[in-house]
Amino acid sequence: MLGVSTFTFGSSTTMLVQSHVQHANLNAKVLALPGSKRQSLSFKTDSLLFGLAPSTISFKESRPVIPFTTSVASVDSDQITSSDTTNKNETKKYYFLVANAKFMLDEEEHFQEQLFERRRYFGEHNKEHDFWLVIEPKFLDKFPNITKRLKRPAVALVSTNGPWITFMKLRLDRVLTESFEAEGLEEALASNPTNLEFEKPDKWVAPYPKYEYGWWEPFLPPSTQ
């Protein structure tokens, strides 16, 4: 709070100085708003007062300043890699079901229907195909427990969609299923050259026409179509 200073210049002089100081006190109270961190009041006394030079009276309230330091970490540009960079050695998981070729391509009543329906669905929704038929796939060499139970030539339905392969296993029943990892689609769908020949039945009794030979070709990997 501001004090009142009295100068001995005579009675009229004293009253005039007190009036200026009281006026300054009033202005300080008006400008000192609650909650502000910094309050400043500055005014000048009357320069005509007794021919004295103008003077400035300032009142300031400030909080202590806490010193702080900043640090800068340097990073080698060689250590920065994009999150979109793919590891060339990264493998992908593939799921498959397999059976002998005659059962899969010539005898099973629902297999062709299931594949054509799924291809139609993917086309209508602009989805990239994630399933293929592989005749005599090379990856079977990794599964001796399967090959010893499998009549050759064999055909595998390969997909990156595990739940769908499980569904097809339940739908077809007499097939074997497993999964494997490969570094690329070409490796996953590699096959051994095979010539398929199916004997025509003497009598066809089903109410629908028999599958045409080669109906499976649209589902082969692009390199073997």
From TrEMBL:
A Pfam family reported for this protein in Swiss-Prot or TrEMBL: Ycf54
InterPro entries for this protein: Ycf54, Ycf54-like_sf
Signal sequence segment: none
Annotated coiled-coil segments of the chain: none
Family the entry assigns: Belongs to the ycf54 family.
Protein name: Putative magnesium-protoporphyrin IX monomethyl ester (Oxidative) cyclase
